Amino acid sequence: MFLAIKELRRNKGRYALIMGILTMLIFLVLFITGLTRGLGSATSSAIKNSPADAYLLSDDADDLITRSSLTQDQLDVVSSEFVTPVNLQRMTFQRSSNDAKVDITYMAIDPMSFMMPNAKDVSDLGKHEILLDESFMAKDVSVGDTIVDTSSNVSLKVVGFVKGYMYGHSSIGILSQDSFQGMLQEVTHAPSPKYNAFAIKGDSIPNLDATVVRTQVEIIAKIPGHAQEQSTLTMILVVLLGISGIILGTFFYVTTLQKLPQFGVLKALGATTGMVGMTIVSQVGMLAGLSMLIGNGLTFAMAVFLPKSMPFTLSVRDALVVSLVFFVIAIVSSLFSLRKVATVDPLMAIGGNE
């Protein structure tokens, strides 16, 4: 450790360059991780963040919640404080007739049920009131504004905002079943309400013919494009980590070759291969650790200034896991150069270039 610190101080320029490369690599890996998590949230956070443990769907829906269709009669059979109807419907709205249409996915719930999200100063949803995902704030929508559903021409008053409610890359607007069914009636003139699913809280699973029960994870897996998108981004992340390992391994190997004469002198003075190897690993560990701190700081600082419309989500836990993986890769990459250290001849080193 003493030798490692002493050499770092003596060759500040060289190791500053190495640390810069490490910092850029960990920053890139963390950024891709944040995009992966953010895009995942953009397709599924309305399901993932809901209090429901499972959902009851029609058995012909192929586990896709928006394809499911349930009736009022079915709801009457299973309705309880632990079972409540849910609708998801993608539509558009305008703030005025001259404004451009804005995509929105309505999430209709019973405001008195467990599905009601926590929102500042909002404990209920009245007729024609709506809670919007906070991403709509970037579109200059504020509390008290009125939006107009373009299909039914029903006006809805914005009473608050919630965080992390999106489905299929569309921001969610949460409204009561009364409001939603009224809007639906204006468009379809259906004789009775229809529901996409019944949200279930707890372990009490209702038994209903022609239906299936699916967990949150199973529902999310069937969201169109979600699995394919996540697998692609995860593969990019894995490849990036692999490339980082190759770059680091090559860099440390070349650096070790340049220092073979010095290592030979150390061995001639009595230093063991293990001691020299520990010096190399200690240097890499210190450089990687400091680079991870800087890279994490840069990533989280950048996240503050990203627009709300950008799907970027990076938790401390995810950053810690990725950083630890990167640290291990850096250490393992440095081990490949130890073979050269083990085979260096002290006599040749003394009579060599130095």
Walk me through this protein's architecture.
The longest helix has 37 residues, at 12-48. The chain folds into two domains: 1-44 and 227-348, no CATH class; 70-195, no CATH class. It is α+β, with helices and mostly antiparallel strands and 354 residues long. It has helices spanning 2-10, 12-48, 72-78, 177-188, 216-221, 226-258, 260-268, 273-305, 316-335, 338-343, 346-350; strands at 54-58, 70-71, 83-94, 102-109, 129-133, 146-149, 155-162, 166-167, 170-176, 194-195, 197-200, 211-215. The chain is built from eleven helices and twelve strands. The strands form two sheets. Strands 3-4-9-5-7-6 form a six-stranded mixed barrel. Strand 8 (166-167) and strand 9 (170-176) form a beta hairpin.
What can be said about this structure in brief?
The protein is α+β, with helices and mostly antiparallel strands and 354 residues long. 50% of the residues lie in helices and 18% in strands. It has helices at residues 2-10, 12-48, 72-78, 177-188, 216-221, 226-258, 260-268, 273-305, 316-335, 338-343, 346-350, and strands at 54-58, 70-71, 83-94, 102-109, 129-133, 146-149, 155-162, 166-167, 170-176, 194-195, 197-200, 211-215.
List the helices and strands and how they pair.
Blueprint: H1 2-10, H2 12-48, E1 54-58, E2 70-71, H3 72-78, E3 83-94, E4 102-109, E5 129-133, E6 146-149, E7 155-162, E8 166-167, E9 170-176, H4 177-188, E10 194-195, E11 197-200, E12 211-215, H5 216-221, H6 226-258, H7 260-268, H8 273-305, H9 316-335, H10 338-343, H11 346-350
Parallel strand pairs: 4-9, 5-7
Antiparallel strand pairs: 1-11, 1-12, 2-10, 3-4, 3-6, 3-11, 5-9, 6-7, 8-9
